[in-house]
From TrEMBL:
SMART domains given in the database record: PGAM (SM00855)
Organism of this sequence: Streptomyces oryzae
Pfam family, one: His_Phos_1
InterPro entries named in the record: His_Pase_superF_clade-1, His_PPase_superfam, PG/BPGM_mutase_AS, PGM_Phosphatase
Name this polypeptide is given: Histidine phosphatase family protein
Length: 217
């Protein structure tokens, strides 16, 4: 909102990067800098064509190459510069990074189960989800604050970071963030501004958002 309390009707599009080889192998990437596959680059190009239709005003991105290359596709279509920020990186997960899902469950079963229950867990000795939100959400908020009224910000980041950022911005308690579910490669979620703050309008979308009609009936 602006200084008068009026809603500025801004939107935030949180866009996950394209596919990587580690995604295909179900290998935990975290802050490891893994490039896109050719299929991932194709996903980024297709999604960028759609998102360009929203006429975004600004693009923020994680500096990890899988997000930076994804963001570059939208930049090339819109002419907007990309602002990279390491605060938008994926969760650092210590010893979990590089392990497959099956290896994590086998080696860190209790830790994995506690995380899935919504308990604060330093996966592999890494970051808490709340710490990820502490660094990522302010980056997004600062970017949104710079938008014109009615403007749209595209944030290119990672599945876990996007989930924690959404949870923080819409005011969900941390133990419920996992309920938001994941994002497919190159899918996105959309937050819209209301008198009560940010509201989740679209989640794990792969097409442009449609107006919601009669959402209470």
């Amino acid at each position: 909102m602006n200084g008068t309390g009026a809603v500025r009707n801004r939107k935030i599009v949180l866009w996950r990067h394209g596919q990587t080889a580690w995604n295909l192998e179900r290998r935990f990437q975290g802050s490891t800098d893994i490039p896109l596959t050719e299929a991932g680059l194709d996903q980024a190009r297709r999604a960028a064509r759609l998102l360009a239709g929203l006429r975004p005003d600004a693009i923020l991105a994680s500096d990890l190459k899988r997000a930076a290359v994804t963001a570059a596709e939208l930049s090339s279509l819109t002419g907007l510069d990309v602002t990279h920020d390491d605060g938008l990186r994926e969760t650092y997960a210590g010893d979990w990074q590089g392990l497959t899902h099956e290896e994590i469950v086998a080696r860190y079963g209790e830790q994995y189960a506690a995380w899935k229950r919504g308990e604060p867990v330093r996966r592999g000795g890494g970051e808490l989800e709340t710490e990820v939100a502490d660094r990522a959400a302010p980056v997004v908020e600062r970017g949104a604050d710079k938008l014109p009224d009615g403007g749209t910000l595209v944030v290119v980041s990672h599945g876990g970071t996007i989930r924690t950022t959404i949870g923080r911005l819409i005011g969900l308690p941390p133990h419920t963030w996992e309920a938001l579910g994941g994002l497919s490669n190159c899918s996105w979620s959309v937050l819209g501004e209301t008198v009560r703050g940010w509201r989740l309008l679209e989640h794990n979308a792969g097409s442009l958002p449609e107006p919601v009609l009669g959402d209470d009936d």
